[in-house]
Design brief:
single chain, alpha/beta, Glycerol-3-phosphate (1)-acyltransferase, seven-stranded mixed β-sheet, 46% helix
């Protein structure tokens, strides 16, 4: 009997396991500290916005016309500070690390629904659609939560077809940053007092009656425009071209594997 106990406990601590009291305390404390760190980055970095979609997106913010904002997982740290709209909603995973991020995002004023492409997808999509119906902008990370890096899944395109909202691909790069190249997403964390360039590409629109081939074409277009935005942002920030190629180049290698 005693030999079975560790195995039952391990199953309870799997991805769908309920959080313990200690988990909840840790999420509240660490999530709040993460929020403070993000706020410091927001206050101490200089920001500029370029790209063919920038004026359009900010005009939609001013008019409270809901949009879909898409960016790669590795370029998410500074995205809350690019948002100028009346309210946004993002899907985030249910596991403990995801809830840490959700805590910080919530404190930054962004609504969070639970779910991911690997768990709780249907419920998360319903939550995003409900948020859109309330006039929220939808925020989506097409290569999350586990990659492959810089390869878009179909979720953003499906949301665009269901809502009629345009997708705006966005990327940023910083003049001074720490890139976590050992993580799958190569998370780019700007350093305080650096200059951050945001690139907003022209929007992608998806008709409600789109065929499967048209949906795939829109997905490919989103992937290409996001990578174009990365290239422009990296160049503006002085990132070595070979580093950008190394970051984006995994798309071709993983697609072939």
């Amino acid at each position: 009997m005693s030999a079975d106990r560790p195995r039952r406990s391990a199953r309870r601590r799997g991805p769908g396991a309920p959080l313990t009291f200690g988990d909840r305390v840790m999420i509240a404390v660490v999530g709040t500290l993460l929020f403070i760190a993000l706020r410091i980055l927001g206050w101490t970095t200089r920001k500029r916005f370029v790209g063919p979609g920038a004026e359009q997106l900010f005009a939609r913010f001013d008019a409270a016309e809901p949009s879909i904002i898409a960016f790669w997982h590795g370029r998410m740290v500074m995205m809350p500070f690019a948002y100028r709209g009346p309210g946004a909603c993002i899907m985030n995973s249910r596991h403990r690390d995801g809830q840490l991020i959700s805590r910080a995002i919530h404190l930054l004023g962004i609504e969070v629904v639970r779910g991911s492409s690997t768990r709780g997808w249907v419920g998360g999509m319903r939550g995003l659609l409900a948020a859109h119906a309330r006039g929220r902008d939808i925020v989506i990370v097409p290569d999350g939560p586990r990659g492959p890096r810089c390869r878009a899944k179909s979720g953003a395109v499906q949301l665009a077809r269901a809502t009629g909202a345009p997708i705006y691909p966005v990327a940023y790069a910083a003049s001074r940053a720490r890139v976590l190249s050992r993580s799958w997403d190569w998370m780019c964390i700007p350093l305080p007092f650096s200059s951050v360039t945001y690139v907003i590409e022209s929007p992608i629109r998806v008709a409600r009656e789109s065929s499967p081939a048209e949906l795939e074409a829109a997905r490919v277009a989103l992937e290409e425009r996001l990578n174009d935005a990365v290239r422009v942002a990296d160049a503006a920030a002085g990132v070595a071209p070979e580093r950008t190629v190394e970051y984006i180049g995994t798309v071709a290698r993983q697609a072939e594997s």
